[in-house]
Amino acid sequence: MLLVEDDEGDAFLVRELLADAAPELDVVTVRSLATAEEAVGAADCVLLDLGLPDTTGLDGLVRLRRRAPETAVLVLTGHGDAQRGMDAVGAGAQDYLIKGRVDGETLARAIRYAIVRRRAERSERALLEAELHSRENARLERGLLPTALLRDPRTTLTAGYRPGRRRAVLGGDFYDAIEVDDGTLHVMIGDVCGHGADEAALGVCLRIAWRALTLAGRPAAEVFETMERVLVAERHRTDIFTTLTAVAVAPDRRSADVWLAGHPAPVILHPGRAAELAIGRVHLPLGLEAGRRLETTTVDLPAEWTLLLYTDGLIEGRTGDGERTRLGIEGLTAVLDRLLEQRPGWAAEPAAFLDELIGRVEQLNGGPHADDVAALIVSSRDH
User: Fold this and answer.
1) Rounded to two decimals, what is the model's pTM?
2) Which CATH superfamily is domain 2-124 in?
3) What is the C-alpha radius of gyration for the chain, rounded to an integer number of angstroms?
4) N or C terminus: fewer CB in 10 A for the chain?
5) pLDDT in tens, 83-108
6) Coiled-coil intervals in this record (predicted)?
């Protein structure tokens, strides 16, 4: 406990009272506020005289709370200064005591109570902050990982997301899927580099821009150009960029236009095997080359098909067996081949299939990935 008292007689009396009533307390005495400010960081509680020569009014209390906001503070007042003591409590002190009217047991109890109360306040504040943080994460999750707008009964979409092991909050992975009036199915998945709330909020901005422009029927080139402008305007650092894969499946579901900006190409799942779609050109991520247009690659699709779109967190883990080699796309397709062979009826439970895929990749990595993982399974069936 830090005793801040300039009157040696009063300080001696306090030490004597505590020596009998609370011998476990280590009392350090200082005679000025300036010295108290240097020592307050190591104290669990401060017993502060409001009548110090180098402070006036409640200034000493304010300065100590500013220097050590987590430390409990009790104030000492003279006879007839009860109002000033109540004012101090209103300014953040845990309690006030009147000199000459406190015995050892009362003083010790007040100190213990102040320390416990201050700790309880910290715990309560931490719980409140955790709750607010959880609510903010939920809002960000709704913005990053929305409900798909699909009408075609032949088409299904299954999504999976897992945060990286470095945190339990969302990163910058985002996705969306929309079927527009002419029957074209638009699917997009992206990843803002970096981690944290700023990146997640930027991902929400980009996803909403993509959805709004796609629903408005704007050409793909305009959609991506506008997304890049939003990214540049909203990012909190100039080195922030975003990778992106976008797919537009024709109304007859037999072909798709694909655009890649620094992002892995989709994987098509055939019976018993998986293969990466052959895309002509992969452009630099959004935010690195303003003013360019993303080239389109058109691919033919079979009568029934399934595409896997994912963020690079899925392939950045290790290959297992003590190897430090990254899984990569070849390793991912190998995992998919084994899974497709072992679960030929997986299409009836795509969510379970996606969970098992992510689980197997994590097992090879030796645990959850450092980066977030988002993945989509999009399927088209004739029945």
Assistant:
1) 0.65
2) Response regulator (3.40.50.2300)
3) 32
4) C
5) 888 888 888 888 888 887 888 888 88
6) none
